[in-house]
Amino acid sequence: MTLFIKNMVCNRCILVIQNELDKLGLSVKNIKLGEVTLEKELTSEEKEQLGNILLNLGFEIIDDKKSRIIEHIKNVIINLVHHQDNDIKMNLSEVVSKELNHDYNYLSNLFSEVEGTTIEKYFIAQKIEKVKELLVYDELSLSEIAFRLNYSSVAYLSNQFKKVTGLTPSHFKKIREDKRKPLDKV
């Protein structure tokens, strides 16, 4: 039995859900972002109990086909942006279409209709969130971040960052640093 779960966005989400399934004594065949395959079918009581537990943790079991497709698109994008380092050499539409085994125009229209934004805008928002994360970590230069996230140039990354956040990457970084207190002042 396969369950589709909304709001699984990272490896920690997988661990949390795995832990809850273990507590309930449910055997898992496979677990990945947005999807859990169990060894056996759940009774309606087990499914309701699991649904309530997941809801309290910020997750949700998805039953309708459109919602499953939307969540799958989001998980493909999250995985692409947050869990792969410059590995993909296809464009976004090819990756999404291939992963979901559907025509991209269908997926794009469905996503826009349900989410009120385009797949491309969602992808850009995820990339900008990753840029913010990498800027806060302060381990990579802006050109290294641009390369890692497949931007054609630092200027393009900076322009897109400013368009989305209203700040330049350097201003964002400075604001974040100004908010941090030294350990002896905490």
UniProtKB/TrEMBL annotation:
Q: Where is the signal peptide?
A: none
Which SMART domains does the protein's record reference?
A: HTH_ARAC
- Gene3D superfamilies, per database record: Homeodomain-like
Task: Report the superkingdom from the record.
Answer: Bacteria
- Keyword field: DNA-binding, Transcription, Transcription regulation
A molecular function (GO) term: DNA-binding transcription factor activity
UniProt xrefs under PROSITE patterns: HTH_ARAC_FAMILY_1, HTH_ARAC_FAMILY_2
UniProt entry tagged with the keyword Transcription regulation? yes
Membrane-spanning ranges: none
Under which name does UniProt file this protein?
Answer: AraC-like DNA-binding protein
Source organism of this protein record: Tenacibaculum caenipelagi
Its lineage reads: Bacteria, Pseudomonadati, Bacteroidota, Flavobacteriia, Flavobacteriales
